[in-house]
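Weekly puzzle thread! Below is a chain. First person to post its structure in token form gets bragging rights.
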Amino acid sequence: MTTPVPPDVLPHLDAVQAALENAGLTVYVGGTPGTSGWTPPDKFCVLYPDPGMAVRSSLADDRTGLDSLMQVTCVGSDVVRALWVAGKVRRALAVSLVVEGRSCWPAEDLGGPPVQRDDDVTPPVYFVPVQYRICSTPA
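Winning reply:
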């Protein structure tokens, strides 16, 4: 009998990042570059993943399903650009992700707050964090 393998969030993170980059977005993971001299593009997104949770796939208590929350913070030099990024993200994640050995379904769009202005950076930017639920089971 084969021991069930718990899911790994990293291939899912890679799949989300690839989907966003394939949509033509500049993607940073866990924050923006902190180096001096970095000039942000006029629109980009920042992906903040959680570690995910192994969930039961059957009554046998084999925790091979994955349930993860990924926040995509959509950033633009103005409100319209931030919302443009949010729309590109929404379209990119509306299809099933491709993760080897897993069956994924389209990310569940959990929404986010209104667009906000960040005056802590120069020049100020506008941002809106949107959360997505990522789920998969073994293929």
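Puzzle host: Confirmed. Bonus trivia for everyone else. Helices lie at 9-22, 79-92.
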